[in-house]
Amino acid sequence: MAFLQGKKILITGVLSNRSIAYGIAKAAHREGAELAFTYVGERFKDRITEFAAEFGSNLVFDCDVTSDEQIANLFTDLAKSWDSLDGFVHAIGFAPREAIAGEFLDGLTRENFRVAHDISAYSFPAMVKAALPLLKPGSSVLTLSYLGAVRAIPYYNTMGLAKASLEASVRYLAENLGQHGIRSNGISAGPIKTLAASGIKDFGKLLGFAAGHAPLRRNVTIEEVGNAAAFLLSDLSSGITGDIMYVDGGFSHVMGLNSSDYE
Ligand code: NAD
């Protein structure tokens, strides 16, 4: 049996068919989940409605996470169709371009810091808080992070600070929600060419370095992240919470030196 059969899962962050959230939707749909989606702004409504239809869903909601009102409305509107939520996927990230385009301190301003943290970090626990009336024992919430949360990665800069906060929120949510049987986890994905990633200076070099130095000797795909996400959203992972799972071909955890460094 498909392992997400009967689960209702809200997926944010689908922007294109290269989005990590699209890979998650593919895997969750394949495993039998019912899906709902969010988009940001009217001009993306048709596009996301088409993606939703691909996955047998007609539930699409406008939600810009910089607005408390839109976050609240999302879950009020969703509750008109679903009386509970088994899974919530937060695949949202943004930093002003100048914050991820040069030296860390050159792009560091109070405003860049605020925007990156507001959209990329605050929004996860804020959305979970708004979703709480719909979450129930067995529900699972999930966000997407990157190695820049725990290591200094050139040009990731202020986004790395926001991801560190996001990863901390995974743990605080796990502690707070565990008493209700609700789990909170993150996936730290290796670099993947998406619209958000293309804003990071020299992202191509990051891709090449990761592929050259990972034990699997390649980059990961949105399908591989999607499969890991489906597992974390499912009862198969019922004993796992507060965790950051690395889906990065082993890049961050395994190698000291790489054989190519000897060439
Ligand atoms: P993407 O561009 O496809 O998705 C980013 C999403 O963030 C978009 O859907 C966009 O609409 C949404 N977003 C931005 N501002 C928003 C706002 N104010 N309100 C609501 N949504 C907003 O790129 P992606 O790489 O699939 O990004 C998804 C997540 O994965 C992000 O958190 C990103 O940091 C993370 N991630 C990406 C990589 C990578 O290399 N691509 C690696 C690790 C983690």
From TrEMBL:
SUPFAM superfamilies: NAD(P)-binding Rossmann-fold domains. The active site is at Y146, Y156. GO terms for molecular function: enoyl-[acyl-carrier-protein] reductase (NADH) activity. Substrate binds at A95. InterPro entries: Enoyl-ACP_Rdtase_NADH, NAD(P)-bd_dom_sf, SDR_fam. Its EC number is 1.3.1.9. Signal peptide: none annotated. It catalyses: a 2,3-saturated acyl-[ACP] + NAD(+) = a (2E)-enoyl-[ACP] + NADH + H(+). The keyword NAD applies. Pathway: Lipid metabolism; fatty acid biosynthesis. GO terms for biological process: fatty acid biosynthetic process. It comes from the Bacteria. This is Enoyl-[acyl-carrier-protein] reductase [NADH]. The gene is fabI.
